[in-house]
Amino acid sequence: MKPLAFLAGLAVSAVAFASQAQALPDTSKRIVLLVDEYKAIRNFPVILADRLGYLNDGALVTVMNIRDDIPTAQMLMDGRVDAVMAYYHHNIVNRAEGRNFEAIVALGLTPGAKVLVAHHARDKYKSAADLKGARIIAGGAGSSKTTLANALVMAGGLRIGDYTRIANESKDKIAAALKDGSADLVVAPTPDGSYYEAQGVATVFADLTTIEGTRKALGSLLPTSTIYMASERVKSNPAIAQHLANAFVRTLKFIDTHTPEEILAVIPTEVSGKDRAAYLQALKEEIPMFKSDGRMPPADAAREWQVLCEFNPKFKSMKVDETYDNSFVDEALKRYR
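^ that's the sequence the OP posted. Answer follows.
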């Protein structure tokens, strides 16, 4: 990973960056962070944490992309990686299967997505309470998209068996299904929702990119992006958890105090792609997802657990308050608030 870089056109003062400049990291304190799709827009905070020097402030953090050939949970359990950046529901699923993982930083508090309704169905489906019988394109059975769809249906007073989930496919196939009437709604992460709107096949049913929109649609927030570790690793190496909490609390503060244009200036072209304008538009939609100080909100974590329990009763046996630990963020906030 690259240390702090002074990027051309960076819209943050040189004085601010000078105060953040750090000595070379201590290679004896190596931390391996596994990320679910490093270049995905939902993971832009890890790019910032790296480029601003926060990750390597006092330790050497190696960021890895998730590998398809080795399960993430296995790599965390056997110590090949120290922490994972992925969605919160993985902690609930893994704990129910006997793998004790816990989120040490809550980065995303909304799904960072929109639910769109096909034009042919918009008069029929106007609110979550109307979704009985709806055909919704989501992800796999335990995916974040399906969790979102389930939460939306339950917010309308229905059960998850009251709608039909359609498997996720390519954007072109999804657009075709919305257009020809074989699907009614789609769960669309940023920036896919804008694509379906531009194709003229659907309009926004629920905007779950912002805190306000998520509360309005679901009645609560839906924690998503987190940094999580194996509980035993947290206990045996609390310094790792504290280092990562410090880095990402600082990153969240940077996101909250800088414009999208200033944030884009930190992100290299190899991540954003050559179309910086398109990336900026997606960034503007995704930034509200990270309106967080890093703490996991207990009531919203419990609500997400309830949604998952409706999907699979085996989750009822676990204690939701064991799936996260706010103590490291609390300590970081004393220093970086």
